[in-house]
UniProtKB/TrEMBL annotation:
Subunit: Homodimer.
Entry GO MF terms: glutathione transferase activity
Taxon lineage: Eukaryota, Metazoa, Ecdysozoa, Arthropoda, Hexapoda
Domain GST N-terminal span(s) in chain numbering: 1-82
Name listed for the protein in its UniProt record: glutathione transferase
The family this protein is said to belong to: Belongs to the GST superfamily. Theta family.
Source organism per UniProt: Aedes aegypti (Yellowfever mosquito)
Coiled-coil parts of chain: 187-217
Biased composition, class Pro residues, residue ranges: 237-249
GO biological process terms, semicolon-separated: glutathione metabolic process
Catalytic activity: RX + glutathione = an S-substituted glutathione + a halide anion + H(+)
Pfam assignment, any one: GST_N
Recorded name of the encoding gene: GSTD6
Length: 249
């Protein structure tokens, strides 16, 4: 029985799950969720995942969301001796976990902070935010110095998680990876190792322009809506004072 994966191919974290499932030979049933159409707020989806985020994986009675949590689940349940991707040794597992937290809290955060204004059509990214991306990639470069993969000599879910963020660096903001020789070498290696990488990346690129246009329209409507008065007052009526901020007292 295939596992249900609620996702959208343009969403980077969804692609990391697809790559790992493919490597583990786990069949997936793709259920597209368009977040710009607010499909994640459908009652049936919220009943399943109150955080209403993608990707969300359903394996029988088990529901898992947050991409790195899904990677751990898949590796633990479906990993084989030859393709475990998540070590059983506690010390080695700690190395993998450390990079999973780095991917979400440092690398992806830096990338999204810099790129979001560009993506939403609100302006250019800030130079100081771009430097945070450079710092994060520099950390990766040091981690890979002397190591074949991010957590050591063995391919792990850390690589599946981080490679999608690096793909965004290369494809979306045209970040020059060649300056970081260890990262560049690792990234080329990932492209060869992950069978569906090029296919998924191309599909995401093909659909991203449509999503970007929709996002910019969504943000424009949001901005215009915020400019409108929340209520109308009769002529001559005094405007009520704004309530204080909750933490201003």
């Amino acid at each position: 029985m295939p596992l249900d994966l609620y996702c959208h191919i343009v969403a980077p974290f969804c692609r990391s799950v697809i790559l790992l499932a493919d490597a583990l030979e786990v069949e997936l049933n793709f259920i597209e969720v368009n977040v710009l159409k607010k499909e994640q707020f459908k009652p049936e989806f919220i009943a399943m995942n109150p955080q209403h985020c993608i990707p969300t994986l359903v394996d029988g009675d088990v529901v898992v969301w947050e991409s790195n949590a899904i990677l751990i689940y898949l590796a633990e349940k479906y990993g084989k001796v030859s393709k475990r991707f998540y070590p059983t040794d506690i010390a080695e597992r700690a190395k993998v976990n450390r990079i999973l937290f780095f991917q979400l809290g440092t690398l992806h955060r830096a990338l999204s902070t810099y790129y979001y204004p560009i993506l939403a059509g609100l302006g250019e990214g800030k130079p100081e935010d771009f430097r945070k991306i450079q710092d994060a990639v520099g950390v990766m470069d040091k981690l890979l110095d002397g190591n074949k993969w991010l957590a050591g000599e063995d391919l792990s879910i850390a690589d599946f998680s981080v490679v999608i963020s690096v793909a965004s660096l290369e494809g979306v903001i045209k970040f020059d990876l060649t300056v970081y020789k260890n990262v560049y070498r690792w990234y080329q290696q990932c492209k060869k190792e992950f069978r569906k990488f090029e296919e998924l990346t191309q599909e995401a690129n093909d659909k991203s322009q449509e999503m970007i246009a929709a996002l910019r329209q969504y943000k424009l409507e949001e901005i215009n809506s915020a400019k409108e008065p929340c209520c109308s007052a009769p002529p001559g009526a005094k405007t009520p004072p704004k309530p204080p901020c909750p933490d201003s007292s």
